[in-house]
Each structure stands twice: as structure tokens, then as C-alpha cells.
Amino acid sequence: MAIKKKTNKKVLKSAKKPALKVAAKKSALNKKVVAKKITKKAPAKISKSAPKPDVSIISSLIELIKNTSAVLPDDVQKVILEALEREEKNTTAEYAMNIIKANIELAKKKSQPLCQDTGTVLFYISHPVGFDQIKFTSLIHKAVVKSTELGYLRQNSVDSLTGENSGMNVGPGHPSIHYHQHNKKLVEIRLMLKGGGCENVGAQYSLPHTPLDAGRDLDGVRKVILDAVFRAQGRGCGPGVLGICIGADRGAGYIESKEQLLRRLDDTNSVPELAILEKEIVETSNKLGIGPMGFGGKTTLLGCKIGVLNRLPASFFVSISYMCWAYRRQGIELGEKNQIKKWLY
Ligand code: SF4
After folding, report:
1. CA dihedral sign, ordered 204, 207, 213, 219
2. Is 262 close to ligand 1, i.e. is its CB under 6 Å away?
3. Whether 313 contacts 184, CB under 8 Å
């Protein structure tokens, strides 16, 4: 996502200069610049032409949910087919990849969920200033309830203490909705359905990690990511895709690691060191011999996406979210009448 790329660039720039020098250079200008910025910056304008959340949005949201549940985005389908080609013929790995391929085709043809576990429902909304989040949240809830009634989503959300299932997929914390305000007039809605099996093999490491001899540097990051892949051993319905966050606190780290999964599989990280690391993690993981579903073979990972957030000097977390082969994410841009103007993947 564009916002994340900017963050990555910032980190790279600051990483090139020693922190103390940067601080000293800035200190002379500090007060003037800050004052200028505060007085000069015009308040963000409330967009009048942006879509307004009303009931007309529900049908677009239901279409988004139905499509996300049944159709894998093109970039994901492409890497799955490439992986199938790579596997040796007449092996269990090839058999597993063929079943995955058949599943994808059948779900698309019948417009039915790709997997019986339609997972945690995660919405990411980028919207202009003045967008009514409270109203939009209630409309999302309505769309999720309707989609569950229609069978696009499994009745999948239970009370954590009693285990009670309302059968509606709506309750505290579910669906998981993340709002981002931007300076554009448009509203973009991205949706990810993340299964429980792959969520269970996510991991978070605190560096330095003595048992793995992993220090607070990119080599340490590489070691803990590969450890997580090795420990998963194909559980969580591999081959999978990793979303990673370096830094932040524990909570923000996991949120960012999931947002990395919103990136296209064929994009390139704007931070050169991370672009190299992403590639290296996939290549090394695919030499571990774990393979699809842990059956052995050449495809353990389909992709790896890494983001960076600032951290406290005292902490260095690496947060890892694992996504299964059923990598269901889609996105839409809304038109002025809340219709689907454009698909984003
Ligand atoms: S981990 Fe993914 S593929 Fe496996 S059961 Fe869950 S949603 Fe389905």
C-alpha cells in the first residue's frame, strides 16, 4: 500500500544517517520549521463529492464479500499455478497442488466459498476526511449478517467465554474493521478472509533471540522468520504467504504484519534491503523440503512481504502473520452512488 511504502522510505533514509547527526542537524531549524508547518498547513477539507455511507452501499459490500470468498485474486492464482509447474510429476506435492488448483476452479465456477472456513473477516477502509465511520461500521455489520445468511460466510464468530455462536458473524471484535483517513476523495475498501488454521501458526519474536543466535539486525530477522516457517511444517494449509512487521509494539506489529498481506504478490518492496530479504526468505523456505500441506516438495512459501515500523530502543519485535494458500483478499473503489467503480486486485 502507498502509505506503507512511504513509511519504508522514511526508515531507509533515517537508517543511512547516524541518529545523533540527524538530531543535531535538525535541532538548529527545529523550532522555526515546526512553527511554520503548524501555521501554514491548511486544515484538511471535508470532501463533498466522496461517497456517503448509506444503505445503497450494502449491496456493493455483499458483492465484495461474495467475490472474496469464492475467487482468488489473479496475482495469487498465478503463483499457485507456477508452483504446480515446479513440483515434480507424480509426487504427493504435485497431487496436493492439483487439489488446490481444482478447488480454486470449482469455487470460481460455482461462486461458492473456496474453503469451508471463511475465517476472520478483516476490512481495511481508506476514506476522505469527514467520512462517517460510525454509520459505515453499522452498514458493514448489516452486509456481514446478510452474507452469512446467504452462505457466503460460515457462521464463524463465537463468544470467547461461552462458545456461543450468534450465527451472524457479528460481535465484539468481529468483523475486524480498520479505517485509514487519506487526502483523496475516493473510498477504497479492501477485504481479507483469514482462516483459523493459518492464524494459529503466526508468531512473534523478541530480538535478540539467544536460542536462534538472532541479533537485532536483518540477519536476526531472517533467522526468526525461517524458524517460524520451519515450526509450521506445512500446518496452516501451506503453501502459504508471510506478512511480516519489523518493529512497533506487540499489538501494532501484528496489525501491520496483516496489512502487509494486502500488497500484491508481484510488487517490489521500496526498501532495497527488504526486497532482497523477501526474496531470500521465499527461496530458502522452498529449499526446506516441507512442501504443500507438509507433504514434502518444492513449494513451502508462495510469497513474503515485510514492513517496518518504529520501535522503542528497548524492544525489537518481529511479528509474523501466516496466510494459507486460500489467500482471499479483494478490494473495491466505490463510485459516487456507492456502486463498485473498480476492483483493486
Ligand atoms: S487454513 Fe486456510 S485453507 Fe486451511 S482450513 Fe483454514 S481457511 Fe481453509
Report:
1. positive
2. no
3. no
User: How many domains does the chain fold into?
Assistant: 1
CB 244 within 8 A of CB 318: yes
Cβ 237 under 6 angstroms from ligand 1: yes
Q: Is residue 247 in some structural domain?
A: yes
Cα separation, 253 vs 318, in Å, equals 7
Cα separation, 38 vs 243, in Å, equals: 36
- Note whether residue 3 is domain-resident: no
pTM: 0.86
Q: Are 298 and 87 within 8 A, CB to CB? A: yes
Selection from 258, 274, 252 nearest residue 322 by Cα? 258
Domain annotation covers residue 152: no
Q: What is the pLDDT of residues 70-98, one digit of tens each?
A: 999 999 999 999 999 999 999 999 999 99
Identify whether 221 is part of a domain: yes
Q: For residue 313, give the DSSP letter.
A: T
* Minimal-distance CA residue to ligand 1 atom 1: 197
Q: Determine the structural domain holding residue 282 and report its residue range.
A: 196-325
